[in-house]
Amino acid sequence: MLFKLMPGLYRLSHYDRSYLHKDIVAGLIVAILFIPQSMAYATIAGVPLVVGLYAATVPLIIYALFGSCKYLSVGPVSIVSLLAYSGVSSIASPHSPSFIELILLLGLLVGAIHLLLGILRTGFLFDFISQAVITGFTSAAAIIIALNQVKSLVGISLPPYEDAVSYLVLLASHLSQANLDTLVIGLSSLCFLLLLKKVAPAIGPLLVISSSILLVSQLALDQRGVDVVGAIPSGLPKLIITFPTMETVLMLLPIATTIAFISFLESYAVAKTVAKKEKEVIQTNQELIGLGLANLSSSFIGSIPVAGALSRTAVNYQSGARTNLALLITALFIIITLLFLTPLFYYLPKATLAAVIILAVSKLVHLSHVPKLMRSSPLDALILLSTFLATLMIDIFLGLLIGIGLSMFVALVKKLLFPYKKRNPL
Known about the structure:
Layout: H1 2-5, H2 7-13, H3 20-45, H4 49-54, H5 58-66, E1 74-75, H6 78-89, H7 97-119, H8 131-154, H9 164-174, H10 180-199, H11 204-219, H12 246-277, H13 284-300, E2 307-308, H14 310-318, H15 325-341, H16 350-362, H17 370-376, H18 378-393, H19 396-417
Antiparallel strand pairs: 1-2
Transmembrane segments: 45-66, 73-92, 98-117, 124-147, 167-195, 202-221, 241-267, 288-310, 325-346, 353-370, 382-413
Pfam families: Sulfate_transp
Keywords: Membrane, Transmembrane, Transmembrane helix
């Protein structure tokens, strides 16, 4: 019974020691990628960088024990961080104490939703959400994230993003105010990341970050207008168990529900992809339970909602990981970083962090197959483009709702018009 509830514990209890070397190597390589990513995604969520590092520890350990995919790297991800920021910023002023408190409570609600759906064995519900909706939404969200980072990349101040057109106009009108040192660091970081992406994708971000820290500290560029992240607190996260009021729950529930669905769909898609290569089966309801407990634990240590990450999972698998021990080794290395290494990041320029984010989210834009889709399935193409444009031009939550509503309407029409025709998936 215990092993059924904790598939990861079963794997560890039957561990083949011949896998140890591969798991250790994979775990360390993923940690090297995870550290800059977790700080970057904390930036997107509008919380202190250390909060992102917290989300890379206990939640990953919990998922490694309760999740059904032995490769899935759970922690902060860009889309979930953007959803958290966009949702809570409509309720509280960004970066304020109440804003941070509400974002930390989101993990509790997201985890509770996942856990409830998993216990009730309702994983089949996610099959009703069209892949076209997810593709359109994530592509638009990735562009929004990238646009939001341009100001840090070049060293200018801009008001929060509202829609793509007005933001691009604002950006163009403020480019003359760019800080030259910041601009050079930001664009150089982006160029080197693109170059290293081809030769050393796993360690590229850490190499660029290390080089930029050394450059800023040695040339005292922080005194010439280059923004740095500053002091990051050392030490392990503390246990924080806070139960929100009913008023707060009702206020956050729409945001939490959206995040719960999107984060699970993203995690489940990644898990299925790597599991298929190993001819393994992913249990939908167990994934909901594993991700739910990971999010609950993230809230209890004062961190942000988490999900499975495509890039880290791919690196974990390609680096030779054989079991979930690799995930535990990744978490251990990040705990060591929190205890001893955070002072090293003081001079990390925000422009370099912006470059890391832009490159990371660029992989989420999937529009190249739209022309082919328009020929093979025009209705799916319509859903994808409608979701994409509504998310990019109107509002991130409204765009997702429009996409889901249109997807359900099209599915209903198809069912009524072609009751016996099997639909081809996207």
